[in-house]
Design goal:
With about 260 residues, the chain is an alpha+beta fold. The protein is built from 12 helices and 5 strands. α2 crosses α3.
Length: about 260
């Protein structure tokens, strides 16, 4: 549900965007800039009353489809559209993740390749979209026979991961709670749905942890490994979101001596 502050912010945003749009055809001098509410309603294919109530911050609950038509009528950019749906506490039916490329954004790829520490990029389903040599050496078995390595599948179902992580049970719970934090934002992503369905079918530990509904913010902190060749290793994990594509994450493991 939207609170009063959200409704006010949404109304102010819609009005500001409406007033910034030039009319489709030359008109006589106007008292107010931009489009009239009637003109925006016609462009968006929604009622004038909806436009007025949204701009006035009234306690109404516009559907996701109505908001999508409003966003189209306002010619919103992707960032502006995401902001509108966040304020309205709705999921965008256009689903920006459904046709997302599997490659990591250039910014993440460049950082991963430029770091000497273990680093990798994750998409919305926690598929490993890019990685560097240090990460490949650390995560034993993650990249063996995998066209699209997935960090969740690796941790929950790969015997080498269980041996690599001395705190495996706690790590499983933490990883899944962090994954669930973003899960609600990407329900429309078929990659996410397939990953969750596969893990529920193939891992009793995943099913049990998933049904506990635990949620955590992504946190840094110490990560322990028991590497088969290098012995016990300790890292501090740093996780950063990609600015342009919020469905990708950069994860860096800083060695701790």
């Amino acid at each position: 549900m939207m609170d009063e502050e959200q409704r006010k912010l949404l109304g102010a945003f819609v009005r500001a965007r409406r007033e910034s749009i030039a009319p489709d055809a030359p008109t006589r001098r106007r008292r107010t800039p931009g489009l009239r509410r009637e003109e925006l309603a016609a462009r968006a294919g929604i009622g004038v009353t909806w436009v007025a109530w949204i701009e006035q911050g009234r306690e109404v609950r516009a559907s996701a489809e109505t908001l999508a038509r409003l966003a189209d009528g306002l010619n919103l950019t992707r960032a502006e559209r995401a902001y509108l749906f966040t304020l309205a506490a709705r999921h965008d039916p256009a689903d920006p993740f459904a046709h997302a490329a599997t490659e990591a954004p250039p910014a993440i790829t460049a950082l991963v390749q430029g770091l000497a520490w273990p680093a990798y990029g994750l998409d919305a389903a926690w598929n490993v979209a890019c990685t560097n040599t240090a990460a490949r050496a650390l995560f034993v078995g993650l990249f063996e026979g995998e066209d699209q390595p997935n960090l969740l599948r690796y941790i929950f179902t790969n015997a080498q991961a269980r041996a690599l992580l001395p705190d495996w049970e706690m790590r499983c719970r933490r990883v899944l709670a962090e994954f669930r934090r973003d899960y609600g934002r990407v329900l429309g992503d078929p990659r996410v749905a397939r990953t969750v369905a596969w893990l529920r079918d193939n891992s009793a530990e995943f099913r049990a942890a998933w049904d506990q509904q635990s949620v955590l913010a992504r946190e840094g902190g110490t990560r322990l490994f028991q590497h088969p060749h290098d012995g016990p290793l300790r890292f501090t994990q740093h996780t950063l979101a990609e600015v342009e594509r919020g469905d990708f994450r950069l994860v860096v493991l800083e060695p701790v001596s």
